[in-house]
Amino acid sequence: MTTNSSNTDILYLLAAGIAVGGTGYFIKRLLSESSVKKAKVPAGTGPKKGKYHSDPDAPPPEPTPLYITPEQVKTRDDRPWRPFRWPYHQTMSIFKLDVNHWLDMDKYYYDYIKEKERVFHTYGEDNIGRLPGSEEACLELMEMVKSHMLKRYPLLFTTEDNGVHVKNELTGETLDFSLPLKLDPLIYISKMAKEDFYIVLKDDEGVHRLMAAAVPFPGGGFGVKHKLGKTLDVIHTNVPYYENKLKPSMERWFAKMAPADLVERASWFISWDHRLLLTSIYSLINGEKIQSDVQPTEFNVRVERQTLRRLPKSKAIIFTNHPVFHSIEEMKDEPLVPSLIRKIIFEAPEGIIKYKNFESFRDHIVPYLNKLVDRQIELGLIKEDTPIKTLPSYPFAQFVKDSDVMKGWTNPKYPGNYSEKFREEVKDSPEFEMKTYAKMGGAVGFH
User: Is 151 helix (H, G, I), strand (E, B) or coil?
Assistant: First the structure.
């Protein structure tokens, strides 16, 4: 089996000039200036149009306060990503990022923060670590995350002493930032934001290296301790089409990236659970197939929502990743979505099919997808000869245009909440992880 795709896409970003990831599920798409897309959704809801490369000395943008309460967060959904493209070329579809969406908030925040604590407590340096030389960047990132949370979410993160102590109103924990720091900067960051973080720095020879990371949610067995200090070439060894499609643009991209340049993208894969550290799809190795008792309605698309930005002082490149789940069932009435998924899992480039482990489940899921496609034809949502192509609302669901930033982006037809299911899966995760890692040779994280 190929290793996880979510971490790979991250490294993919770093590797293509905007990638940071590993042999895990984050390395996946070519980065070049020509791949920057124009926004197709209203202002304030997603990707932005405009000049891409900024003045190197321009300050990073500041977020606008959003006065949502802890109670409102409990019912809040993240933006409805639909990153399905056809033709499925090996490109990195990136968009200018509105700083207000750098660290988003949704109803799964509390559960994600608690799962971070479990992963770090259980696996330690396999999922969080830093090397000498990254100290300045880690401290700068910690201050940036703290400042962002206080400014963007003034009712969710509060302080009475100008940020020396910050209370997370969602978890009830007060974080002490007085010097000397009581915790590692990466821990403070992880207690405030639900995202995974990668910190990349250029060495004395001008080569970019992964120097620090807090990655509890890779999707597959991505061990950061095996990636720290490595160059992007080494990290991307197993990435499909890296050498001929991604590598050439990597350093060129980083050279032009300024602190005011923020971008985002989303990649995806399919699984049938909501586990964050290790998903079911990546527990299948050596040609194993999905269990026959998995119900079609259990399938979901795990979207890896990723951002990239540069810190102004240390010049470190910061890559974030945040998993968002959308069940295929909730997307069944969105024109062309079932058709796109069916086409991609069978007709994507062979390297991608193997990398995302589509072969392990596609024969199991295709009868379900066939029924959904036929249903869309019967309902008049599509025709039998409707061309299968990238959605006009890409990279979001069509209903994003009718959403409200205060209320969030709840699916108007099929609102969902997988919190209870997620908590059940977390309880079973230790045993699931132990069995999977034993099957893979006893390593905590496969590479």
Answer: helix
Count of the separate structural domains present in the chain = 1
**Checking DSSP bridges between strand 263-271 and strand 300-310, what pairing results, if any?**
antiparallel
Which residues form the domain of 126? 5-439
- Indicate the helix (H) or strand (E) that contains 366: helix 362-378
Q: Are 140 and 186 in contact (CB under 8 A)?
A: no
Peptide bond into 56 cis (omega under 30): no
The answer to whether residue 446 sits within a structural domain is no
DSSP for 261-299, written as a single string: --EEEEEEEEESS--SSS-GGGG--TT----TT--GGG-
Mean pLDDT for 155-162 is: 98
Kindly write down the DSSP assignment for every residue of 184-222, as one continuous string.
Answer: -HHHHHHHH--SEEEEEEE-TTS-EEEEEEE-S--SS--
3-class secondary-structure state, position 62: coil
| Tokens encoding 42 | 């209203």
Taking 3-state DSSP, the helix, strand and coil percentages for the chain, each rounded to the nearest 5, stand at 35, 15, 50
Give residue-wise pLDDT tens across range 297-339.
999 999 999 999 999 999 999 999 999 999 999 999 999 999 9
CA–CA distance, 2 with 154 (Å, rounded to integer): 43
Rounded to whole angstroms, how far apart are CA atoms 366 and 384? 17
Question: Which conformational region is residue 373 in: left (phi greater than 0), alpha (psi within -120 to 50 degrees), or beta?
Answer: alpha
Q: What does the block give as tokens for 375? A: 């249903």
Asked, for residue 295, whether it belongs to a domain, the answer is yes
pLDDT value for 52: 64
Residue 447 lies in a domain: no
How many CA atoms lie within 13 Å of 432's alpha carbon, on the beta-carbon side? 20
Question: Is 445 inside a domain boundary?
Answer: no
Residue 131 exposed, middle or buried by CB count within 10 Å (0-12, 13-18, 19+): middle
